[in-house]
Design brief:
This protein is of the alpha/beta class. The chain is about 70% helix and about 10% strand. It contains 22 helices and 15 strands. It has a 6-stranded antiparallel beta sheet with strand order 2-1-4-5-6-7. A 6-stranded mixed beta sheet has the order 8-12-13-3-14-15, sandwiched between helices. Strand 9 and strand 10 form a beta hairpin. The longest helix has about 130 residues.
């Protein structure tokens, strides 16, 4: 995997959205990411891991990961990572999670989408499985590409089983784990063999002798069938001829009987034909004339009734028109006097307004008098308030000179507060220092039981462990020889002629070696090994305990020095602080006097504030009084102005009166005038409405009267036309009666009353004629055909019985032949199946023997472990190339017999020791060498042009010389087409690496990325 670009926002200390372009960094081959501790360097790797896999090393799902990963000033987190996989395809992954706006700690789960770049477009994928794209699980990704802090030595310290599983996944070693495949094949073969053997039990009676016997029997049955079939054909021909003759005689007799019946029915059908033709002729001539006559008489009746109805309506409309005219003439004088009456109505309305104006003028006079009194009252209150304000301001002027300056009190108070805090800090720091001294004394007491030299105890313990390892190695070698001898003895006991050897597969064993029983000696050796393991563990336990105590001592000493420095710093700060006291009003040693004076000043300030509040309140009252005075004066002016306006309106209204006079009504009440106005208004309205109504009715009736007169005239004309049409129809009917020789229309109607179905009768007649002629012709043909023939019923019965007997015998013989033929075919098919099954049985039996040999080969995944050990040894060889250079050829890495890593120490005669005995710097060197070798192997397997590797720890454990060696090693990787990224705060590396990113943490904006 090669990174292209990373965008992150709202993640850990990264508050703002920022983008890292890896293109320039990866082109350099070696680049760095530098920054102070806690600046957010490792967060870049976590962003890549989380974007790809949704997993991080620091947090898991139970740790409220989404909430803790999100920046506390952000409401959402976003990651976008573009990269190239081992197939040189470009992919993008985006993850985002958001904070619940109502609940700060509720962060919704992240959403993830993968894209592939195709034809310069990002196409979304239908899955989010990163392992399919990169080819590595998360566990192996952080071991071979991005190694986070704290995980650098993980591969080195893995157990054998976990390491084997890792090798299987990374290098696809499961292809060599054929144990399960062999077991499946064996089970399947055994099942097929059992089924085949059970199937063959059903074929025990199938053989060639039985098939031959059935063929002989078939020949006999076929000959018998041929003989019977010859006799049957002769009898069949005789029987068929007699049967046909019998059918002809029976048919002739049947036709003669039917012909007699048809002769009897012929007269009836002749009469029916005459009657049907007469009905058809009358129906076609007279039905249209009679229908037209009925239609005309019906329409004449309807028109006469309609004429009568419209004549009655015309009389009623004429009567209404005359009545309306009389009412209109009666009301006309009142309508003509309506204009004068409406003027009177308007005068009454004006008088009502003037009565209202009079009442309003009276009320405004009263309000003006009351307003004048209220203005005088407010002016008196205003004078009293001004006097009170002057008195309060005099008291305030007396208090102000007695108050101390607030800034002076604040500065002095801060000085005393700081001095108090310094004294408390000095006391606490002194107690801390004494506590650390007591802890160091306790550690010295803990070391006394171990009775060691603190400077050389490590070497002493290593010498003891080396001696135990040597002794253990010698005993283990002897144990391995005895175990091999014991296994060979077991194999020798199991060998028998005819049974295959599990090692070479031979079935013959001419020279079997004999071995002595070594179980007792193996037991003793195992006890010795257990004892050595116990001693070794005891030494390691003591070593670990001493290292922990010394580490605690070292830490406490460091902390004690820090606390002493802090104590001295506090004392110096206290002396400096005392020199900053500049206030003559107070004593630096008498804080109580300062507090008293400050309290007095605060009390005076409080009194001043209360007086200012009261004065402010009185000023507000004075302002309110002035506002009230202005409001009352304005209202008074409004009353006077309004009174003048109302008097003006009243005078204008009096001038508008046309008939009535104001002097006649000014003493009337409003209700009296309103009643006069209402009565007159109702009378005028009623007169106008009634006149308009009668006028509209007159117009409507006149229109209706004209229309009805026109309708009656039209109906009279239509009646005359109908009478002419009826006369013409009667003439046509008389002419048709004369022409068809009928005495009257009654005779025609009696014929039509029969309602004969002409088409149905004609079909019946035609069908009868055809049947009659067909029967007559059939009798003549049969008599001609049977002339000279005679039928004997007894002879026919004898021939029929002989035919039935021979037919039964023939069928029986045919069934026997068919049955035997079918049985022989079945036996032949079954025999062929049996031959095929026997061949399959032979193949399965041979395969079963081969699968037994394969099962022995792949039992216990031993072959996978063997291949895994080969890969591990190759990794060791590749890692040692760099490890030798880093350690100046002093140390080497190897695999022991249990496939665990151990160190060869060339400074101590090339003896082996555990990787756990390495110092922090050496552990980093060997882990780096192994990680580089593992990354190279993985990415070589993936056939990538380049491979990428990220390191996030370890450089701080190296001295300057070692840093140079490690840097040279990493620089050499550029020539091998390798890309390495380094995360560190070591300044020496920052100076050596030309291309890097610098992470700066801003208090307001969070972590910021700079390209250096």
């Amino acid at each position: 995997m090669i990174p292209i670009q990373l965008t992150l926002e709202g993640l850990y200390s990264y508050q703002e959205r920022q983008t890292i372009d890896f293109t320039g960094l990866t082109e350099a081959g070696l680049f760095g990411i530098f920054g102070a501790v806690g600046s957010g360097k490792s967060s870049i790797l976590e962003a890549i891991s989380f974007a790809l896999y949704g997993e991080t090393e620091r947090l898991n799902a139970r740790d409220k990961r989404a909430y803790n990963m999100m920046n506390l000033k952000a409401n959402s987190s976003f990651m976008r990572f573009d990269f190239i996989n081992h197939d040189n395809k470009i992919f993008r992954v985006e993850r985002e999670f958001k904070r619940n706006s109502k609940k700060f700690e509720d962060v919704k789960p992240s959403s993830v989408t993968y894209y592939e770049k195709q034809n310069e477009k990002w196409v979304p994928l239908d899955h989010s499985d990163c392992e399919k794209i990169i080819g590595l699980s998360y566990a192996n990704f952080k071991r071979t590409i991005i190694i986070p802090q704290g995980q650098f030595k993980e591969f080195l310290e893995l157990g054998a089983a976990e390491r084997t599983n890792m090798m299987k996944e990374i290098f696809n070693l499961q292809q060599y784990d054929l144990q399960n495949n062999t077991a499946v094949l064996t089970s399947k073969n055994r099942s097929e063999l059992d089924q085949l053997e059970g199937h063959l039990k059903g074929f025990e009676d199938i053989n060639e002798e039985h098939i031959s016997a059935q063929n002989e029997l078939l020949k006999t049955e076929k000959q018998k069938f041929e003989n019977i079939n010859t006799e049957f054909k002769k009898a069949e021909e005789t029987y068929r001829n007699l049967k046909n003759l019998k059918s002809d005689f029976e048919l002739l007799n049947s036709k003669k009987e039917n012909y007699k019946k048809l002769l009897d029915e012929k007269k009836t059908f002749d009469a029916l034909e005459t009657e049907t033709e007469l009905y058809d002729r009358i129906f076609r001539i007279f039905t249209p004339l009679i229908s037209e006559k009925n239609k005309l008489y019906s329409e004449l009746k309807n028109r006469m009734e309609e004429q009568k109805s419209h004549s009655t309506a015309l009389q009623e409309t004429t009567k209404k028109f005359n009545q309306n005219k009389e009412q209109l003439e009666k009301i006309r004088p009142e309508f003509e006097a309506l204009d004068q009456s409406k003027i009177q109505e308007n005068d009454l309305k004006i008088i009502l307004q003037m009565l209202g104006y009079s009442a309003e003028i009276k009320l405004l006079k009263e309000r003006t008098e009351n307003g004048s009194a209220k203005v005088k009252e407010v002016e008196s209150k205003q004078t009293l308030t001004k006097e009170k304000i002057q008195e309060l301001e005099n008291r305030l002027g007396e208090l102000k000179p007695k108050k101390l300056d607030n800034q002076l009190l604040l500065n002095a108070g801060n000085w005393f507060s700081t001095r108090k805090n310094m004294l408390e800090s000095l006391q606490k720091q002194t107690e801390k220092t004494e506590n650390f001294k007591a802890e160091l004394q306790k550690i010295e007491e803990e070391l006394k039981p171990f009775n060691i030299e603190t400077d050389t105890f490590q070497q002493d313990f290593n010498l003891k462990i080396t001696a135990l390892e040597k002794q253990k190695k010698e005993i283990s070698a002897r144990k391995s020889q005895l175990e091999v001898q014991q296994k060979l003895a077991h194999f020798a006991d199991e060998l028998h002629d005819g049974k295959s050897c599990p090692l070479c597969g031979s079935l013959e064993h001419p020279h079997i070696v004999e071995f002595n029983d070594v179980s007792s000696e193996l037991g003793k050796i195992q006890k010795q090994l257990d004892e050595l393991d116990f001693q070794q563990k005891e030494i390691q336990t003591r070593t670990s305990a001493v290292e922990k105590i010394l580490e605690r001592k070292k830490l406490l000493q460091s902390q004690l020095e820090t606390e002493n420095d802090q104590l001295q710093s506090i004392m110096i700060q206290q002396e400096t602080h005392l020199k900053t006291f500049i206030w003559e009003e107070f004593n630096p040693e008498n804080e109580a006097d300062f507090n008293t004076k400050r309290a007095e000043s605060f009390e005076i300030e409080k009194q001043i504030e209360e007086l200012q509040k009261v004065i402010s309140g009185e000023h507000k009252n004075l302002e309110q009084t002035q506002q009230d005075l202005n409001k009352f004066n304005k209202a008074l002016e409004d009353f006077k102005r309004k009174e003048h306006e109302v008097r003006t309106k009243n005078d204008a209204s009096e001038a508008n009166l046309k008939i009535f006079r104001w002097e006649n009504y000014h003493e009337h009440t409003v209700s009296e005038v309103e009643k006069l106005h209402s009565d007159l208004s109702k009378q005028n309205l009623e007169t106008e409405k009634q006149y308009q109504k009668l006028s509209e009715e007159e117009k409507e009736i006149a229109v209706s009267l004209a229309a009805q007169k026109s309708t009656v005239s039209q109906l009279e004309k239509q009646l005359l036309e109908l009478k002419k049409e009826i006369s013409g129809n009667e003439i046509q009917i008389k002419e048709a009666l004369i022409l068809n020789k009928f005495g009257g229309l009654n005779e025609v109607e009696s014929v039509l009353a029969q309602e004969i179905n002409i088409l149905e009768n004609r079909n019946l007649i035609q069908k009868f004629r055809i049947e009659f002629e067909t029967t007559k012709n059939g009798i003549a043909e049969l008599e001609t055909k049977l002339k000279g023939f005679h039928f004997d019923e007894t002879q026919f019965s004898e021939v029929e019985a002989q035919f039935r007997t021979l037919e039964t015998e023939k069928n029986n013989a045919n069934n026997a032949v068919v049955k035997l033929t079918t049985e022989i075919e079945r036996l032949q098919n079954e025999f062929r199946k049996k031959e095929g099954l026997l061949k399959d049985l032979s193949k399965l039996q041979k395969r079963s023997e081969n699968l037994k040999i394969m099962t022995n080969l792949f039992k216990g995944a031993g072959f996978v472990q063997y291949v895994s050990s080969i890969y591990l040894r190759q990794l060791c060889d590749h890692a040692n190339i760099r490890f030798h250079r880093m350690t100046r050829n002093q140390l080497s890495l190897q695999l022991n017999e249990n496939n665990d890593f151990e160190i060869i120490d060339y400074l101590n005669e090339g003896r082996c020791r555990s990787v756990k005995t390495l110092s922090g710097g050496q552990a980093f060197q060997v882990s780096l060498s192994l990680a580089l070798a593992l990354a190279e192997s993985v990415q070589t397997n993936a056939k990538a042009d380049k491979n990428f590797f990220f390191i996030d720890e370890g450089f701080g454990t190296q001295d300057l010389e070692s840093v140079n060696v490690v840097f040279e090693t990493l620089t050499s990787l550029q020539k091998e087409n390798r890309i390495v990224g380094i995360i560190s705060h070591v300044e020496e590396l920052k100076e050596k690496i030309p291309v890097s990113l610098n992470i700066v943490k801003d208090e307001e904006r969070g972590s910021l990325i700079e390209v250096v």
